[in-house]
Amino acid sequence: MGSPRVRGNTDLLLDRALSGAESQGAQIEKLIVDRLNISPCREYYGCLKDGNCVIRDDMDGIYPKLLEADIVIVASPMFFYGLSAQVKALIDRCQALWARKYILKQDPPGSGRKGAFIGIGATQGEHLFDGSALTLKYFFQTIGVKYADELLVRGVDKKGEIQEHPAALADAEELGKRLAQA
Ligand SMILES: Cc1cc2nc3c(=O)[nH]c(=O)nc-3n(C[C@H](O)[C@H](O)[C@H](O)COP(=O)(O)O)c2cc1C
């Protein structure tokens, strides 16, 4: 959950997706990225040697989760046409996993693991989610999951306003169910 606004639009949308997945028997774990201690990448490049980041913070516990989960959902508000800084910091720290895959030639666990993007923004911009979707495509590739699904919601701004949206919450529930079923 990539928004700093707990119980905001992203959070509510993600919760519905998670309850959809849970209804199909999935075990869920939700990370509120803003509450974790995640340094941005510092380009120390220790990861090029052995695939491990030299920074010790909450990413230590997140790398194994990203490599073990059958489904990874990234939910983020759009901030200046991109993912929130909190989510982007987490993704950039996965340069260590990129090094494992592309430098050290250690493939991440794959075989059917799936990734999905839940994006939300205030405007109606045609290209509102393009940059984030591209970032996530390469992020998912790096951690060995397929970009399998997405829910992109425009025109929602105030905290909790998503609850007045005619379809988004039901769509999120369906997305969660789809991901957990197949
Ligand atoms: C720093 C910042 C930048 C934003 N940039 C955009 C933007 O580029 N495009 C857009 O449609 N909405 C933008 N928004 C609006 C949020 O995406 C919108 O309010 C969203 O519903 C917030 O979701 P949340 O309640 O989960 O945090 C921005 C909001 C903030 C705080």
User: Order of SSEs, N→C?
Assistant: HHHEHHEHEH
As residue ranges, the low-confidence spans are none
Structural class by helix and strand composition: alpha/beta
Are any ligands bound, and if so which?
flavin mononucleotide
Average pLDDT rating: 97
Task: Explain what you see.
- There is one protein chain.
- The chain has 182 residues and is α/β, with parallel strands linked by helices.
- Helices cover 41% and strands 12% of the residues.
- The protein has seven helices and three strands.
- It has helices at 9-23, 47-50, 59-68, 85-93, 95-103, 130-143, 168-181, and strands at 71-77, 114-120, 146-153.
- The chain has a three-stranded parallel sheet with strand order 1-2-3, sandwiched between helices.
- Strand 2 (114-120), helix 6 (130-143) and strand 3 (146-153) form a beta-alpha-beta unit.
- The radius of gyration is 16 Å and the shape is globular.
- It binds flavin mononucleotide.
- Flavin mononucleotide (FMN) is lined by residues 3, 5, 8-11, 77-81, 120-123, 128, 156-157, 159.
